[in-house]
Amino acid sequence: MGKNFFLIAMLISSMFLGQNKNNPTDKIRLIQKAGSARSLEGKALQVNIFISLDKNKTWSRKGKEQVLQILPESETWLKRELGLYGHTMDIRNKNFGIDRDIILKSNPDVDAKDYGWPNEAIKQMGYNSLIDFYDDLKSKNDFDQMYIVFFINGQGQPYANPCDISFKEGDEDDSFVEYAAIFSSFDEVPITDKSQHYLVPHEILHLFGALDLYESEHQTKKTEEFAVDHLTESVMLGSIRFVEEDSQQWNLKKYKIDEFNAYIMRLHNNYKSWYDTLSKKLARTYD
Ligand SMILES: [Zn+2]
Fold it and tell me: 94 C-alpha to center of ligand 1: Å?
């Protein structure tokens, strides 16, 4: 019996050793390659949808225009960063909710966990579901990547809803169409303020697989510290580097796509073993 136990233990441990050959970073690279925004290349369609939460406090025309004016900077920055890795992507914008207000009953705040709100918005635009909207856009436009950026009139923490590899055919309504939710202000600072211009590209990069580098579902406090030391200029660190100091926040221009996230998003293939430090926490949730 002792001998059998030993053999089984050997067998089990060799199974685990076999699994470990795949490092956490390459695993995350695979996990993030799903949904309507797969990789940073080809033709992308960015769909901007303006949403209000209260019929007495809707977006003003000027407010919408001011948001649309910050988008070219985000696009220029993204193209510059892709260019550094020898990549190009065309981005076309389509805007909705400009002439007619879309007013939600459901709550898009990340803490409300009210996942039905994008479908409520899409229904007001005359579609049955996100995938119905996607199919209609696909039949009329030529694109390789598509994602939605909801601009919500209100205070809130911006977030992204990327699709991962657990997505299956038939789940389309829930997770295939990738979107970001960006509120008109965050911590009392309007998104049109220069210090907040990094938010739009930060959230868009999540849709293409980028991981947060601050303490979150992607990082521990320890790996955040590692990222602050090693990838100081990364746009995926968000504003963490400014929290404890009174230092002036950066303009978007100063930010970078860090080499770790560039690898995750398949902008380069030069794997380094320290990348595993930053991918471990998320990889564990897929074990
Ligand atoms: Zn983030």
Answer: 23
- Give the CATH number of domain 31-210: 3.40.390
Selection from 255, 158, 145 nearest residue 209 by Cα: 145
CA–centroid distance, 125 to ligand 1, in Å, is 28
Q: Count Cα atoms within 13 angstroms, Cβ side, for 7.
A: 4
Beta-carbon neighbours within 5 Å of ion ligand 1: 212
Confidence of residue 220 (pLDDT cuts 50, 70, 90): very high
C-alpha 139 to ligand 1 mean position (Å)? 31
216: CA distance to ligand 1 center in Å?
9
Give CA–CA dist 87/80, Å, rounded.
9
Distances (CA, A) of 125 to 102, 121, 135, 211: 8, 7, 14, 31
| C-alpha count within 13 angstroms, C-beta hemisphere, residue 108 | 31
On the question of pLDDT at 173 being above 80, the answer is: no
Give distance in angstroms: CA of 204 to centre of ligand 1: 9
Name residue 111's beta-bridge partners. none
Cα 206 to averaged position of ligand 1 atoms, centre (Å): 7
> What pTM was computed for the model?
0.89
Q: What is the pLDDT of residues 47-91, one digit of tens each?
A: 999 999 998 889 999 999 999 999 999 999 999 999 999 999 999
Pick from 284, 147, 118, 150: which is nearest to 217 by CA?
Answer: 284
